[in-house]
Amino acid sequence: MQYIVLYRSAEVSNPTRTLLGSKTHTKIGFWNVRTMATATKSAQIAEEMKRYELDILGLSEVRWPGTDRRVVSGLTFIYSGREDGKHFEGVGIMMTPRVAKSMLEWEPISSRIIRARFSTRHVNMTILQCYAPTNEADDDKKDTFYEQLQDQINKTQKHDLLVVMGDFNAKVGSDNVGVE
């Protein structure tokens, strides 16, 4: 049996500000952090986000189990990890207080995909933060990931601005020995 959990609260379902508009700029970034297992890593990531003046930062390989919404160094962090308690995979989105106030909803799809939707001035924006399996992963894992991603793309409301970002484990170059 599968469960879909859509997180809504009074704070989330009634955004007080819009994220994008003619008078605001929103800077979005991505980082494969390899792990957030140490206590100092979360604070370090938050400081780097502030240093680069990012409003939204997508994170891969968070390696936190479960799903939650937390405040880290004054920034809101939503994440989706494995449900079996293992510290592998995991994705998240870290955001400034201004962005957090414009969040309409968020949904943990799997330990490799998280979705968040934000209020903007003219259209809403949906962000899909992803962490794809490597080429070495078995075909079932890869197929499941890409089916889930396509399903989320298809479910995105027609007029939403869609941002798909993350670590897709792509390899470039001419050395394709052993590649299907």
Automatic annotation (TrEMBL):
The Gene Ontology biological process annotation of the record reads:
DNA repair
Give a Pfam family name.
Exo_endo_phos
Query: Could you tell me one molecular function GO term of this UniProt entry?
Result: double-stranded DNA 3'-5' DNA exonuclease activity
Question: Residue limits of the Endonuclease/exonuclease/phosphatase domain?
Answer: 31-174
Q: Tell me where on the tree of life, at the top rank, the source sits.
A: Eukaryota
InterPro entries referenced in this protein's UniProt entry, alphabetically = Endo/exonu/phosph_ase_sf, Endo/exonuclease/phosphatase, ExoIII-like
Q: Which PANTHER family match?
A: EXODEOXYRIBONUCLEASE III
According to UniProt, the name of this protein is Endonuclease/exonuclease/phosphatase domain-containing protein
What gene is behind this protein? Answer: ORF189902
